[in-house]
């Protein structure tokens, strides 16, 4: 019975170590480039990485450029410095994020919570997962002076670039005026609202950043920075961009 088992067991021929195959494997996995990306993300020089790993800066330089084949021991030292598993260097690399949103794919959404919207917006990146910012195309329609302009707040910051028309932005207890070509960057944790100030719709590009807003050092509205191409301009606020 033992002889039958032995005869039916698969037989593996040992594969001779081939330095060229090993180098090709290292090149395919782009291990040197991965090490360099990890190092640069930490703003770490070769000398500093050498101090942490016990490897010389010259060896690490050759490792990053693929001129030497690393041992598992050396890779483990590097992985530990950056809090990675050894498998990080051999797993398939994730594809770089690149997503095109066609104009026909966008959805026009009205201002929420009001019967008579004063603006409409379209998300320019709603299909991007785990995005760190939200860009919007916004159109502010002319409204009656008596129309309700509802302020809103949210964590983070907003950037608005006015493409056409005139726009009034209320930030805290101050109102600022924008003309086409003006831009503004402001703290969105302060109540802000928008009103079209021209007879034709005002159009803007808005970007909201997903950052928690630090607490202000002094009470009161937080500052607004208005960037205007020519004359001085009051600090404006971006349109409501609820996703």
Under CATH at level 1, the class of the largest domain stands as: Mainly Beta
**In percent, how helical is the residue content?**
10-25%
Superfamily (CATH H level) name of the largest domain:
Jelly Rolls
Number of domains: 2
**Oligomerization state:** single chain
Q: Please, how many helices?
A: 6
The run of helices and strands is HHHHHHEEEEEEEEEE
Question: Structural class of the helix and strand makeup?
Answer: alpha+beta
Profile the largest sheet: 7 strands, antiparallel
Q: Per the principal axes of the C-alpha atoms, what is the gross shape?
A: elongated
Mean pLDDT: 79
> How much is the radius of gyration in Å?
29 Å
CATH architecture of the largest domain: Sandwich
> What is the terminal separation in angstroms?
70 Å
Beta-strand content bin: 15-25%
What name is given to the CATH topology of the largest domain? Jelly Rolls
**Number of DSSP strand runs:** 10
Q: What order do the strands of the largest sheet run in, or round the barrel if closed?
A: 1-2-3-9-4-7-10
Q: Uncertain spans, ≥5 residues at pLDDT below 50?
A: 1-13, 212-220, 230-243
Structural commentary:
The protein is of the alpha+beta class and 243 residues long. The chain has two domains: 19-89, Orthogonal Bundle (434 Repressor (Amino-terminal Domain)), CATH 1.10.260.40; 103-227, Jelly Rolls (Sandwich). It is 23% helix and 23% strand. The chain has six helices and ten strands. It has helices at 2-8, 19-29, 31-41, 46-53, 57-64, 72-81; strands at 109-110, 119-123, 133-140, 157-164, 167-171, 174-178, 183-187, 192-196, 202-209, 224-227. The chain is elongated, with a radius of gyration of 29 Å. It starts with a helix and ends in a 16-residue tail after the last strand.
């Amino acid at each position: 019975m033992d002889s039958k088992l032995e005869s039916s067991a698969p037989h593996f021929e040992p594969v001779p170590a081939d330095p060229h195959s090993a180098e090709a494997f290292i090149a395919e996995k782009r291990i040197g480039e991965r090490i360099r990306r990890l190092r640069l993300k930490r703003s770490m020089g070769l000398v500093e990485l050498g101090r942490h790993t016990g490897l010389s800066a010259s060896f690490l330089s050759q490792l990053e450029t693929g001129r030497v084949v690393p041992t598992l021991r050396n890779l483990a030292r590097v992985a530990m410095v950056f809090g990675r598993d050894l498998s990080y260097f051999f797993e398939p690399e994730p594809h770089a994020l690149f997503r095109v949103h066609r104009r026909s794919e966008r959805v026009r959404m009205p201002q929420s919570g009001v019967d008579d919207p004063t603006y409409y917006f379209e998300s320019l990146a709603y299909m991007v997962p785990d995005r760190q910012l939200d860009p919007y195309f916004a159109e502010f329609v002319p409204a009656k002076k008596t129309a309700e302009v509802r302020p809103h707040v949210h964590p983070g910051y907003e950037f608005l670039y006015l493409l056409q028309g005139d726009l009034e932005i209320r930030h805290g207890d101050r109102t600022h005026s924008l003309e086409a070509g003006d831009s503004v960057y402001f703290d969105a944790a302060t109540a802000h609202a928008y009103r079209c100030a021209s007879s034709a719709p005002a159009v803007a590009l808005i970007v909201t950043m997903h950052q928690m807003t630090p607490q202000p050092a002094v009470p009161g509205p937080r500052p607004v920075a208005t960037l205007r191409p020519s004359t001085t301009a009051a600090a404006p606020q971006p349109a409501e961009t609820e996703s």
